[in-house]
Amino acid sequence: MRLRRVILLLGLLAAPAAVAPWFTSLHWTVDLLACFPVQAGAWCLGCAVLALLCGGRLSFLLLAGFGLAAAAAVVPDWLQPPPAGPTAAPTVRVLALNLLRGNEAASAAALATIAANDPDVLFCSEVTPEWAAQLAAALDQLPHRRVHADPGYFGVALYSRWPLADDAVLPLPFHWTPAVRATVSTPHGPLGVLGVHPPRPGSRDQCLARDEGLAAFAQAIAPLPPHRVVLGDHNATPWNRGFRAMLAATGLRQATTGRWQPTWPSELPWGLRIPIDHVLVSDTLGVADCTVGASFGSDHLPIAATLRWLAE
Questions:
Q1: pTM to 2 decimals?
Q2: pLDDT per residue as tens, the chain (312 positions)
């Protein structure tokens, strides 16, 4: 009986995070908890199995219910990956890196990651002047670029194999968290790109600022051509209220191909990370693959996607 009670109490510790994705509008703290339904759901289900093995049927039912609530919030997206598109369709390779301010000594590892992915379009966030100088000297294969370096955490840079048109650095919506927008003149036609790094959540005001940044995506991509991609460190998981509202407003979808692909923090084991770095695409783009790479010294893992050109 004591063991069953201990297991029940341990399982209930994760219950708020397990159901949080369903109640994000209640309070900003609930929205923060909604970042962890995968971990919370797995914990609840594990405790449910232990409770059943100890003869605690009611505890099993209660904890399994919380675990299933978390699964219901997460699994449907994994079961509906974006269309891959015909294999003969032209492709564009994109890569997003949060370089990490203060991680400039790891430039060799970052450049090796870029070389291994061989992107046609690269977006980097937390680009300090030192990072910008090191990248400028090494990315000959990506000669077209728009760089806004900053000594803080919100420098951004876009690099492309092909020419950029209408490239601009714009507030999103705060001047200290700019995004970079451009139309890439690919051999297949124009590709609209928005590289983003909205504010990180934390306090009530920080969560509000993050959501305002996400809400600004719709207006920011409005001038772009129909083939569009938004990539970068969104500081939001797919279960946060602001992220879901942004997807609804923009008509974009995640490029993840039906797998759990957490990116932050890189120093934690795979199962304890959360997915806050994203590649989002319009319905005119198929997704051949989307992968999270190995650590290069940043607290974020790189995310790359091969996109297929579909008819408008």
A1: 0.95
A2: 788 899 999 999 999 999 999 999 999 999 999 999 999 999 999 999 999 999 889 999 999 999 999 999 999 988 888 888 888 899 999 999 999 999 999 999 999 999 999 999 999 999 999 999 999 999 999 999 999 999 999 999 999 999 999 999 999 999 999 999 999 999 999 999 999 999 999 999 999 999 999 999 999 999 999 999 999 999 999 999 999 999 999 999 999 877 789 999 999 999 999 999 999 999 999 999 999 999 999 999 999 999 999 976
Tell me the C-alpha distance between 204 and 210, whole Å: 10
| Residue 258 to residue 81: CA distance in whole angstroms | 5
Three-state DSSP state, 235: coil
- CB burial of 28-46 (b: ≥16 within 10 Å; e: otherwise) equals bebbbbbbbbbbbbbbbbb
The DSSP annotation for 172-224 comes to SSSTTSEEEEEEEEETTEEEEEEEE-PPP--SHHHHHHHHHHHHTHHHHHTTS
